[in-house]
Design the sequence.
DNA sequence: AGGAACGTTGACAGCGCTACCAGCAACGAC
DNA sequence: GTCGTTGCTGGTAGCGCTGTCAACGTTCCT
């Protein structure tokens, strides 16, 4: 019905095709698979599109092709520093690809996750990134039935839905405790907050290491379901100290807690590391600048997000990785807070010790 | 032809309508404007949809209605704590509404912002949230031509595109400096990183306050374009101290820098606040737990994001706010790092002083 | 009583794009 | 020379939904 030159002056594929002197379908192909066109038509369509300032209509494309170019991402928290690094990795990888990111926050609730998953799946995403390996049975079933690639991030486990990228929190915690053992520490406390599955596995790693050395005592463990914070680190450490005044080290489930412990020690004039050693988890930026500098377990958060999104996009485009489960490992970054002698002289400007000793371990081999 | 019972067994609006015994268009209306239906049909459609587990196809809806239910959000950084709070506010507000969030990262580049804006606008978003008031001329023109509501967040300025929510960074900086004056400080340094427009305006506020008191000296200002970090705070403070050993206070453009300054002081055994007072900006959680507790300018980041998204959604739905520009103000939270006497005894557990004195100021009245 | 106004419903015709299949030329194999 | 085969192109027919308009019954007004 005389549908040329749409009233609102919008540029449709048909206009581009007309200007290029090809059929709409050929123009369409140019945007999806340029190699399928002859060079002549390819350049004609390209310049026509540029001249008209054509922008494809994603809704029409999604409707016609029965699939979207959206990657769904489900993470438990928007505030946690850990996830902001992961997210940045994901967004960086998605840029330049034709996929866009649809982000949702499960607030550490697997029921909420299930609900969001249902929502996402109904829109037929091109791919999905989900956090962790602890889904509801229902969620798990939906993921397995989904006809798109899926990456589980943050940790690795025995039974991937599809792809998986992360590291073993259990092994990482064991390595942290092993480091403290090496430094001659015996009464090592554990401080944890939120107690999501990954923190729980860090606790498990700590417990197993302590039990292996016949040093485990329940009262050395202080945890809470409350979301983590520096202030909470102060409070939990105070609790721990009240239970066990002879403590000679604390392994904190994350760096915020470690910073809180550091502050609380300073407040109580407890010498670090002479009286108590501190080890954190994640190696956030400030750990290297604290006084004393704080030992932590470095995790590759940005890389985790970036690789996950990259792998996912490759899989969507039909190039599945040969290795669907990727262990990114971790490193214990040894700093002053847990090493008995301050061997290095104070650096000129920043508190970062230039001579951080690193203990690198690929996780996953128990 | 014969398009009933789509092959893949997918539930379309037509199936719902058939089961409910109404026409598809009536069923469609149920999802968009239930009040337009008679009670009888409303309940019939509702139960039919529930029975079939109908989920609307957003792509088809977008194509047919020529508009999407996507709110575009442009922020400069995914890593910065400040923005993660804002984002959380935005996502929280979008939940429960029918709008979904499309997030993109401008990396503090207004050119990148322009590019993303073009991309977003091409998809006809339902609304847009952009950061700050410094857009390129081109971006500004696009925003003004856009036929959707727009909220500028993070700061307020004279000439809103549409709606605006934030506070005056200039006034907030002046208030921070005024507080230091009150405490008898005179040689007040400024430490800033990244120097995005908002940090620049904090610097402007600092400069004007110092000039008003005839205390401004260029060498009191240390800034860098480098992204902010705690480590950078250490380094910049060291620079500042080298230039001006008689310093008696530092105003840091954000809390990470302030923490770095704190650590560097500890490293150099500079007494806080006796020798040097520290004031940060944003009042991140850890400021209340540091030793000594750190004074900061509290900003309502979560509320900013939440209110912005709420206002935007209201505006999309046709209920424009009577007051399109909202000043959320700020508060100088006075803590030990800038108050001369430690009047409060040590709290039992956390470092947070229970008796934080607050100076609240609605910004915007110079 | 006649007609306007309203509330409710449905038919029709796309929205802009792509899946599918058919067509055609050019090429090599038999 | 005939028959595939490959590479490129185009026509047709929707994808699932909603905008528009018309039609209907009911109520309210004059």
Sequence:
């Amino acid at each position: 019905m005389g549908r040329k030159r749409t009233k609102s002056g919008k540029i449709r594929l048909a206009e581009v095709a007309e200007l290029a002197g090809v059929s709409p379908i050929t123009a369409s192909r140019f945007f999806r698979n340029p190699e399928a066109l002859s060079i002549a038509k390819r350049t004609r369509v390209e310049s026509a599109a540029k001249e008209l300032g054509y922008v494809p209509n994603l809704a029409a494309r999604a409707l016609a092709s029965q699939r979207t170019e959206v990657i769904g991402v489900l993470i438990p928290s928007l505030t946690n520093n850990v996830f902001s690094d992961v997210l940045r990795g994901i967004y960086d990888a998605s840029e330049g690809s034709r996929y866009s990111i649809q982000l949702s926050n499960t607030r550490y609730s697997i029921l909420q996750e299930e609900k969001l998953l249902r929502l996402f799946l109904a829109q037929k995403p091109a791919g999905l990134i989900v956090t962790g390996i602890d889904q509801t049975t229902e969620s798990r079933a939906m993921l397995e039935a989904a006809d798109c690639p899926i990456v589980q991030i943050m940790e690795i486990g025995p039974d991937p839905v599809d792809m998986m990228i992360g590291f073993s929190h259990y092994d990482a915690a064991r390595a942290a405790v092993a480091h403290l053992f090496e430094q001659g520490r015996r009464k090592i406390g554990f401080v944890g907050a939120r107690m999501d599955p990954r923190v729980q596995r860090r606790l498990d790693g700590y417990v197993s290491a302590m039990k292996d050395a016949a040093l485990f005592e329940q009262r050395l463990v202080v945890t809470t379901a409350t979301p983590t914070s520096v202030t909470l680190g102060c409070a939990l450490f105070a609790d721990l100290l009240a239970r066990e005044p002879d403590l000679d080290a604390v392994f904190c489930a994350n760096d915020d807690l470690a910073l809180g412990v550091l502050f609380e020690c300073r407040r109580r004039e407890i010498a670090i590391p002479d009286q108590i050693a501190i080890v954190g988890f994640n190696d956030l930026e400030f750990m290297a600048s604290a006084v004393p500098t704080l030992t932590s377990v470095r995790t590759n958060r940005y890389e985790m997000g970036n690789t996950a999104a990259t792998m996912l996009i490759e899989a969507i485009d039909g190039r599945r990785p040969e290795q669907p489960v990727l262990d990114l490992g971790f490193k214990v970054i040894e700093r002053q807070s847990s090493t008995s002698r301050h061997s290095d002289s104070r650096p000129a400007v920043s508190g970062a010790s230039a001579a951080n000793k690193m203990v690198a371990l690929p996780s996953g081999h128990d």
Notes: DSSP finds twelve helices and 13 strands in chain B. Chain B has three domains: 13-56, 65-168+302-327, 169-299+329-361. Residues 1-8, 342-362 of chain B have pLDDT under 50 and may be disordered. The CA atoms of residues 136 and 341 of chain B lie 48 Å apart.
